[in-house]
Amino acid sequence: MMDRRLLQLMASAPLALGSSRLYAAPAASGNRLLLVFMRGAYDAASLLVPATSDFYYESRPNIAIARPGGGPGAALPLSDGWALHPALAESLLPYYERRQLAFLPFAGTDDTSRSHFETQNSIELGQGASKGGDYRSGFLNRLAATLNTGRTRPAAFTSEVPQIFRGDEPVPNVDLIGAARKSRLTADDNRVIESMYRNTDLHASVAEGQRVMDAAREEIDAEMQAASGNAVSADRLEQEARRIARFMTDRYNLGFVDVGGWDTHVGQGAASGLLSNRLGQLGRALAAYADAMGPAWKQTTVVVISEFGRTFRENGNKGTDHGHGTVYWIMGGNVRGGRIAGRQVEVKRETLFQDRDYPVLNEYRAVFAGLFSRLYGLDRARLAQVFPGVAPVDLKLV
Questions:
Q1: Which residues make beta-bridge pairs with 156?
Q2: Low-confidence residues of the chain: pLDDT under 70
Q3: For residue 50, what are the CA distances in angstroms to 57, 235, 334?
Q4: What is the three-state SS of the chain?
Q5: Per-residue model confidence as pLDDT tens digits over 237-258
């Protein structure tokens, strides 16, 4: 996390951006990849805590995770001054200790719109901020088409095929949600309530209350839909993780699932609360997935991303707002984990992006291109079919 660490990492980087070839291990035919998209932009500074940064604790008087050794609810020490949210103590920390989990801070896209929809869409298409080029397909669809070996079997574990999998390559979707969600109160329920108070002094108040609740619900639903994109909830994913694993062992080897509910503007919480609960659910879901993969876990990679991070300082509502850089998670039986990967800087005010957010030092397309080269043995020409004009960066994640 320190500047000295950054210099060491850069000096030992396995691939410079200008290199002519990417050195990759031979691709194994049984490799499986699952991409998990946390829609809504989770607070990465609560997940991967910069525990040696005084600036972190000055910036978050209410929502900071206590330093390691600070008693109940304290962060769990990792390496290089970083620590892990305590909600993941039983689920994911053991994978880090077994070197099957790595974290990539300061990751993301150069898109600075801070718009959920725009950034999610550009990431799924595999675009940069310039939006140039012909991007009519998602980058996982292009990956599946590029591999085109007959052994690549893609699937989206979503209610409909997401942008990341749309394109020329046919991709099925496995709906984890089922029937469309319904409001707790149907139109008939509202009519019954209205009739109960008809011809009473409370009728006008009840009718107005119903109109206000309907308007508020529509506004909240619109915000959540924009942020979460109809993604499955964290608690539902926890229930469905083993079923996804069965599909990934028996039928598919390139998967995608999204999980919503990470837009924590208000009442985010610290070691406990809203964000802690969601992190705990996601951690247990990933651990269940790993367990259910059985022997196939040895050839499995899971990458967890989000559209962007959140503001480094807490807001007036004890939450965080839309930010920039975030933290990716890379987990699997074939992952070179037990470390904090990629380019890093010391966490202090001077290194913030626009004096508010984590910077992006590890651009997502370059990172994925390096990962795809190692998993599938893709050369520069084939990688360019997935991410045109992007130089891959090999972080030796697998």
A1: 173, 256
A2: 1-29, 131-134, 149-150, 178-190, 192-194, 197, 201-230
A3: 9, 27, 27
A4: CCHHHHHHHHHCCCCCCCCCCCCCCCCCCCCEEEEEEECCCCCHHHHEEECCCHHHHHHCCCCCCCCCCCCCCCCEECCCCEEECHHHCCCCHHHHHCCCEEEEEEEECCCCCCCHHHHHHHHHHCCCCCCCCCCCCCHHHHHHHHHCCCCCCEEECCCCCCHHHCCCCCCCECCCCCCCCCCCCCHHHHHHHHHHCCCCCCHHHHHHHHHHHHHHHHHHHHHHHHHHCCCEEHHHHHHHHHHHHHHHHHCCCEEEEEEECCCCCCCCCCCCCHHHHHHHHHHHHHHHHHHHHHHHHHHEEEEEEECCCECCCCCCCCCCCECCCEEEEEECCCCCCCEECCCCCCCCHHHCECCCECCCCEEHHHHHHHHHHHHHCCCHHHHHHHCCCCCCCCCCCC
A5: 888 999 999 999 999 999 999 9
- 350 token code pair: 């001077």
pTM of the predicted model as reported, rounded to 2 decimal places: 0.82
Q: How far is CA 263 from CA 44, 258, 267, 276, in A?
A: 12, 14, 11, 13
Integer Cα distance of 50 and 52 in angstroms: 6
Cα four-point dihedral sign 280, 286, 289, 291: negative
